[in-house]
Amino acid sequence: MTARRNLALAAKHLALIALLVVMLFPVYVMLKTSVTAFDQLFGWPPSWWPKAWSLANYRDVLVGGYHFGRAYLNSTIIALTTAALSIVFGFLAAYGLSRFRFRARQSLLFVALATQMFSPVVLIVSFYRIMRGYHLLNTYAAVILAESALAIPIALWLLHGYLESIPVDLEEAAMIDGCSRLSSLRHVILPLAAPGIAMAGIYTFIYAWNALIFPLVFLSQSQLYPIPLAMSRFVGQNVVYWNLLMAGGILATVPVALLFSAIQGVFVRGITAGALKG
Amino acid sequence: MTTERTPARSLSRRPSRWAVVRRALHPDHSPVLYLLPAVLFLLLFLAYPILKVLVESLYADILIRPDLGRTFAGLRNYGRLFTDPGVLRALRITVLWTLTSVAGKTLVGFAAALLLQHPFRGRRIYMTLLMIPWVTPVVVAAIAWRWVLDGQFGQLNGLLSALGIIHQPVSWLGQQGTAFVATAVVDMWVGIPFMAMVLMAGLQAVPNELYEAGRIDGATSTQMFSFITLPMIRPILLVATLLSSVWTFNSFQVIWPLTRGGPAGATTTLVVRTFTTAFGSFDFGLAGALATFVFVLLMAVSYGYWRLLQRTG
Question: I want to staple B109 with a disulfide (CB 3.0 to 4.6 A). Which of A116, B196, B223, B262 is the partner?
Fold first, then answer.
């Protein structure tokens, strides 16, 4: 019996390792390429281990002539503002939807859900005209407003799921004790909902950090480019600087990975409570 | 006004209109003020653009041909839409591509979830490593894969020739068939962690007593899988695949950096087609009709999803 169980466990490890080898293959290539010098890139067969390690690519990306630091700043501004707008608007609306019962409630929840299924592509045609009409092309505002239109419903949906899991009794007790709804919201709900708010904020931050299509359409001035667009700078006339692309890619991933690891636990719960149970 | 001063007693019986309004808006009793900011924002930046896209689709308007002007075209753009072989091809490619990618994501994600279902030493490490593709920004992932799949010096070519499977480098993204499969595989790669995580959460929710009861009754693990796990996980599986289908259908960030819809349109899905119609040929009328078509399609699926959620939730 134990021998059989050990065999099953070994098979499980083996299957998982095989899966991860495949899943992490591009990650390995990315890491390897990011520490390889440009003149070592194009050889056949491709090497499996860099001959000489060097962090020069990272230095070139960050402080070289590519202004990647500026792209970092652009991405941060866009993602932070989008996350802030999404939390404020999304939290208030989620509170209203989870603590009051009224006729339009179900339809509003449906709209919030339906927008998660949108492709930004559906909106860019008219968004382009609207932003051009308001002279907002080539501004952060255009990107932030458009991203928020899709991020607010996500935040709303996630926070609604989270607030539903907080018992109403706690606020009711506070209100019976003479608290107004607003002050019970502030002193009772807000602290309890903090993990959910962090989750929604980080999710919408990542959403905006990764966005490609709105910046692609709204921004043509290269000093405003967020990271996904700025990566194109490492593609020359006839040559692609894969070493710089990969170093830039890793630098773009690190903040997301750190943020995500901070909320992983809450996030899994939130996704299942919010997105799957309605 | 002054002559109709209401006595204090009747005021307490019938509140003035202002008091009614105030009560309807009061944050203690009404959701209005909580909902207002989000609703206004979404009306302005979501509902209005959608309406505008509908209007757009009724006009003939090619942005780089101002000489032709902007004229009302009725449903002519829709006529063009459904007779354009390029659009029909894009529709076919979208359906096939979505099915391929979602099938891959679901199978691998479910397998991973099953492997990680029960606690064992090292499980957390596997879970963390499995999340890496998910935290990688999609554009970054697509670019990394483009280098992996490079037709000359790509690591995949290196690997396959070291294993003796191929004898000369393959231009994976340069041929129609391989480009289609390769972009679908990259999309799977991006989506597998989410699928695995959601299904794992679903598996955690299956009460352990059921498995224990099964074990007492002498069920084999295959029987336990098909009579306990599968029926219990079905609702979540359904929801996750449906949601994933919609996201895959919408995938732009994977295809655009990899192939721009090429070669020869082999990876041009509806979404890519809409984008190139609007910002490649600047045919805003036709792009509007395409966008509307995609929108209606997605709304129909959303509604089905909503009904499903309400039945299972």
Answer: B196
| pTM greater than the 0.90 cutoff | no
Q: How far B133 CA lies from chain A's nearest CA (Å)? A: 7
Residue B132 lies in a domain: yes
**CB B53 to CB A102 under 8 A?**
no
Q: Is the domain of B79 the same as that of B167?
A: no
B249 touching chain A per CB within 8 A: yes
Domain A67-277 has CATH 3.40.50.10300: no
Q: Are residues B78 and B131 in the same domain?
A: no
Range of the domain at B127: 96-269
> B107 to chain A, minimum CA–CA distance in Å?
12
Is the domain of B154 the same as that of B258?
A: yes
DSSP state of B206: S
pLDDT in tens, chain B (313 residues): 444 444 444 445 566 778 888 877 788 778 888 888 999 999 999 889 988 888 888 888 887 777 777 778 778 888 888 888 889 999 999 999 999 999 999 999 999 999 988 888 888 889 889 989 988 999 999 999 999 998 888 899 889 988 989 888 889 999 999 999 999 999 999 999 989 988 888 888 788 888 888 888 888 888 888 888 888 888 888 888 888 888 899 889 899 999 998 898 899 999 999 999 988 888 888 888 998 998 888 888 878 877 877 776 5
Out of B145, B147, B306, whose CB is closest to A113?
B306
Radius of gyration from C-alpha coordinates of chain B:
27
Instruction: Please tell me whether residues B58 and B102 are part of one structural domain.
Output: no
Question: Which of A125, A136, A186, A207 is the mutation pick for testing B, counting most B CBs within 10 A?
Answer: A125
Residues B73 and B112 in one domain: no
Give the long-range contacts of residues B71-80, CB within 8 A, separation 24 or more.
B73/B285, B77/B285, B77/B286, B77/B288, B77/B289, B78/B289, B78/B293, B80/B286, B80/B289
Interface predicted TM-score of the whole assembly (ipTM), two decimals: 0.85
Cβ-based neighbours of A193, under 8 Å, separated by 6 or more: A91, A159, A162, A163, A166
Where are the domains positioned within chain A?
67-277
DSSP at B62: B
